Amino acid sequence: MARTAKNYLTKKRELVSIAENLFLKKGYEDTSVDDILSASGISKGGFYHYFKTKDEVLAESVAFFIEDTLVELEPIVKNRRMNAVEKLTLFLTKQAALKQSKIRFAKYFGMVISSDLILFKFYLSMCEKYVPSVVKIIEQGVQEGVFDVDFPLETADILVRMLATAPQSHFYSGFINGETDFSNYADSMQAIISRTLGMKFNSQVDKR
Asked: Where are the domains of the chain?
């Protein structure tokens, strides 16, 4: 039973990966289910065993992306040898790096925002998965006296929503494709986060 479930998930991820490459190469709207069938070698019946529609493939891609980023980010939160500022700095750095390493992330996110329902699910899932981790970092920082926050949960929710919606900016694709511009964008975001957490501007998280 467990083996069957594992094989099912593996095949599902494989189909999502194939579909992602097609979406990015041809465009989401111009990619058909038949294109996915041809590239994967799976039958139509086999495809519908995993997905009902092409939109479901994209929605699953979003879910896998969030799960994969959490695998990278959770060890930071659980590290008992790091203080809150170090965790926050590494958390933000990793999160930005993961976005850049995702297959041309700006274009990928452009596919997500083409569907209001998938975009809504993306934000909902981001907040559900990320907020608890950020809350832990904020609470640790408050205990250590480096953060001045009265409401950790509410603050974490606002910060995560800010990070999640950043790619919707008209300028975001330009920022993420240029090393200098993206660095400036990331530094500006970190400064906003630092002030929101009641940190001094010359704190560790703001050092260039």
From this structure: 1-52, 53-206
